[in-house]
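It is time I had a proper look at our fold encoding. Can you supply me with one protein entry, sequence and fold together? It will help me judge whether the discrete encoding reads sensibly. Leave the record below and I will have a look:
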Amino acid sequence: MALEQLKNNKASDEDGITSDHLKTGGTPVLKVLQKLFNTVLLEDVTPEAWNRSAVVFFFEKRDNTLLKNYRPILLLSHIYKLFFRAIANRLTGKFDDFQPA
């Protein structure tokens, strides 16, 4: 479910992996990611790449010499985004269970 929620055709971070790659990888990729995610949860250690990001500025309008006319985009690992989305989905389900009727 989390994988389906990731947007297609988005830029990758420095690892070069996009959500499109993860989606076309099928079951073998998902099994490797499951092992990684379980290790992160059980050992409370995240991959070093998840601690880094890149900021890219996209020009939006008017005068390109003014910084206010640029929009910052933060490039994060798509594997990290998938992990976060899976956790968020699980928490959302739990929170819904505890809401008063």
